[in-house]
Each structure stands twice: as C-alpha cells, then as structure tokens.
Specification:
By secondary structure, the protein is mainly alpha-helical. It contains 6 helices and 5 strands, in the order ββααβααββαα. The strands form 2 sheets. The chain has a 3-stranded antiparallel sheet with strand order 3-5-4. The protein has a two-stranded antiparallel sheet with strand order 1-2.
C-alpha cells in the first residue's frame, strides 16, 4: 500500500525510499551509540556535543547554538552538558555580554577524551556506513542531506552550522 501525503500518495519508488530512510533512522543511532558506550562510556549525544565544542575551543559555544545543531530540546541538552561538566569534560559560564546567555566550552580533559574516542568512532562510522557506499553514493548522500536540512523548513534547518560542524564523526 502506498503512503498518502497532502492527499497525494507516494509513488512506489518514493515509498521504498521512505521505508529505507525510516529503517536508517531507527537502526543507525543505536549502532553508533552502542560502539561509543562500549568503547568510551559516552553516549552519541555526549560525543556530538563535545565534537561541536572542540571546533570552538577558544570562545566556546552558546548552549542555544548547540541545541540548534543537534536538534535537541534544551532540558536534554542541559542534562548532557551537566553530566559532561561533572566528568570534567565541559565548563559552562555566562556570557560577559549577556548574562542570560550560557556558553559551554570543552576542557583540555574533554578534548583529550574526544581525541581518544574519535579514531574508534570514525572507524565504526566508516565500517557501518561509508564502506558500503560508492563515491557517487556518498556525493548523493551529501546532496540529499543538504537538500533536506537546507530546505528552509525551520523544523529541519541546521542553519549555518552544518557546513562547519561535526555532524558525522
């Protein structure tokens, strides 16, 4: 049976593509999470937050910007950053320009943990995803991600962070 959207059914090819995308959305996160948990005692969200912070080691990152990139609700992001802070991987301070703005920054210990975790994570991502794709498929995946995340839909938008952020490993 085809899937209907806005009164128009998905055609067979769209329906198949949608089913594969849904399969990836459900299966890939636990696979990535499992490797990081087993090898580094980090969640995928922990890793992604630290990876984003590692790109801005001097000035840190506004908590709202982190939440916008990883599409995470503020309470969940606060819990993750609090956990990382207790582990000594992250610090939080108020912005000197606006005390309402919280800046998160990776610590040297956090950077060390990320550098320890990155090779295994990147290898796992390569084996799980990229080793199964041709260069053309990787290019297509990039184009698909850009088309969806840069579509202008505010629910999907990665804003300007996408080009310079560690969305993957």
């Amino acid at each position: 049976m085809d899937i209907m959207t806005n009164g128009t059914w998905l055609n067979d090819q769209e329906s198949q593509a949608w089913k594969y995308l849904v399969g990836l959305l459900f299966r890939l996160p636990p696979v990535l999470e499992g490797q990081l948990q087993r090898e580094e005692d980090l969640s995928f969200a922990d890793y992604m937050v630290m990876a984003m912070l590692s790109e801005n080691t001097n000035e840190g990152v506004r908590m709202t910007d982190i939440g916008g990139l990883v599409k995470m609700a503020q309470p969940r992001l606060t819990r993750i950053v609090t956990k990382l802070e207790k582990l000594g991987f992250v610090t939080r301070t108020n912005s000197p320009e606006d005390r309402r703005v919280v800046i998160a920054q990776i610590t040297p210990q956090g950077l060390s943990k990320l550098e320890q975790a990155a090779p295994g994570h990147v290898d796992h991502v390569r084996r799980t995803v990229f080793d199964h794709l041709t260069p053309q498929q990787v290019e297509n995946l990039l184009e698909i991600g850009q088309a969806l995340l840069d579509s202008g839909d505010p629910e999907l938008s990665m804003q300007s962070h996408c080009a310079n952020s560690p969305v993957a490993p």
